[in-house]
Amino acid sequence: MVLMLSNSDVDQLLTMKDTIAALDVLYGELGRAEAVTFPRQDLHVPLANEQDDLAAHYLKTMGGASPAFKVAALRFSSDVCTWPLFGNLRRRVKLPVQNGKWLGLILLFSSITGELLAIIQDGYLSRMRVGGTNGLAARHLARKDAARVGIFGSGWQAVTQLTALAEVRDIRHIKVFSPNRENREKFAKDMEALLKIPVQPVDSPNDAAEDVDIIVTATNSRQPFLPARLLSEGVHLSCLQRSEIEMEAYRRCDVLFINLNSPEHNYTSTLFSKREKELNMEVRDHPWTYDKFDWSVYPTLGQLVNGIVPGRIGDDQVTAFINNIGVAAQFAAVGAKVYELAKIKGLGQKLDSEMFLEDVHP
Predict the structure, then answer these.
(1) Residue 111 — pLDDT band, cuts 50, 70, 90?
(2) Which residues contact residue 348 at a Cβ distance below 8 angstroms, ignoring those fewer than 6 apart?
(3) What pLDDT score was predicted for residue 291?
(4) Which end of the chain is more exposed for a tag (fewer CB within 10 A), N or C?
């Protein structure tokens, strides 16, 4: 039988503690080149009969396998995207056009038999694995006494960034900044109730970064906004997106680790070319500026977890983890944990395996 697991199932099954534990094993494998993953593939084409000439159909695929968990995973999503301006920052917005919902799935396969084990909605699992990855990096890079956090962003992804930090450090105070006052105040109230930690909404980026041990950027901005001057001595910087911090902020870091040395592969229709030039942008997930980086020169989180490359060696160092690209093998490791828990607790819809099998081999 194949298990169909919804976001609600994943939310009931998966804890941040389990997520970080699974990722710890996976990044050990990645550091030894045992787990296998391939860079994300992004495809953008214009919407048919669409008035917005920046709206695109965005098809994303990625895959990876974990020998330790004996599974492989293929993750894909099909989205309608636009790139509107919010103030002076251009953001990517995924529109919920399918009955007000989005489409994203993980296919989990057995590496023993090759069979399909589960089909998992990707929303909650993806949010947990991103937060858990940044939390795992903070476990290795943030000062042991780190207790104060300043976070930029008050959206859905920001939640697990904080729950992961609370799992790996004794966090005692959090400040949050986002441009929308109502959003940051609601986020502060909700997170304070969830974490039982004081969470203070603040009015400026300077306020969020002042007198903290960890700075988190958890936004959907596709333009850099965090300057180097906000990185004080001894701080750990945890970035959800590679495009959130300015070039000088990269250079300010004494120790910097990334997820993967390879960028995603973009396949974009030339039908967007004229508008891209007019607006000095590209219809793609991340801005062109960061393609100029040679990602191959940066050490990876797998090398950090395995001790191949040292992390923080002094309390005065500025350390950073940049989630420069998603790692598909994360879906294999964390997906395997979800699948295991679902079988134990009897959650998920059972589908006949024969529906997915064929009697010819192309």
Answers:
(1) very high
(2) 3, 4, 5, 6, 9, 118, 342
(3) 54
(4) C
Query: Residue type at 313?
Result: I
Which residue, 13, 259, 2, is CA-closest to 125? 13
CATH 3.30.1780.10 fits 2-125+328-356, yes or no: yes
Q: Residues 198-227: what's their mean pLDDT?
A: 93
- For 190-252, give the secondary structure using H, E and C: HHHHHHCCCEEECCCHHHHHCCCCEEEECCCECCCCECHHHCCCCCEEEECCCCCECHHHHHH
If DSSP codes are grouped into helix, strand and coil, which group holds residue 269?
coil
pTM exceeds cut of 0.90: yes
Structure tokens at 282: 């590209």
User: Which residues does residue 257 pair with via DSSP β-bridges, in sequence order?
Assistant: 321
Coil, strand or helix: which one is 27?
helix
Domain 134-322 has CATH 3.30.750.24: no
Looking at the chain, the whole-number percentage of residues with pLDDT higher than 90 is 75
Q: Tens of pLDDT along 322-362?
A: 998 889 999 999 999 999 999 999 999 999 999 998 988 87
Q: Distance between CA atoms of 139 and 14, rounded to whole angstroms?
A: 20
Query: Could you tell me the residue ranges of all domains in the chain?
Result: 2-125+328-356, 134-322
